[in-house]
Amino acid sequence: MILKEFNKGWSNKFNTRLENLFKYFPDIELESVERYKGMLRVRFKALDNEVQDIVDSVAYKIERESARTCEFCGEYGRRKEEFLPEKMCVCWKCHALHGSGQIETQEKE
């Protein structure tokens, strides 16, 4: 599981897509996966320039979609930073729970 250090909303929604990249392009390497400004940032390295362009395009699409996907539940969310330890993408329900201290930033399934 590539996204094991993230909450289940992102893990459930994006992990299969990322794993499929390794099926289609077995020579790529995962350089980094991180939360950056409230969205998922994924970096790959490929030996071939054409494959690099394809993998970068898919990673970009995942990054943009993660910017509006709640990291906790996978529903539509918005990037927020008030009452949170760092900027995160959360839906209004999870934001209300997190703001009151009921959700940990590493909630696991």
Short précis:
The protein is of the alpha+beta class and 109 residues long. 39% of the residues lie in helices and 19% in strands.
Structure description:
The chain is α+β, with helices and mostly antiparallel strands and 109 residues long. The chain has helices spanning 8-24, 49-66, 92-99, and strands spanning 29-36, 39-45, 78-80, 88-90. It has one domain. It is built from three helices and four strands, in the order H-E-E-H-E-E-H. Strands 1-2 form a two-stranded antiparallel sheet. The chain has a two-stranded antiparallel sheet with strand order 3-4. Helix 1 packs antiparallel against helix 2. It is elongated and about 45 Å long. The model has no long low-confidence stretch (mean pLDDT 86).
What topology does this entry show?
Elements: H1 8-24, E1 29-36, E2 39-45, H2 49-66, E3 78-80, E4 88-90, H3 92-99
Antiparallel strand pairs: 1-2, 3-4
Helix pairs in contact: 1-2
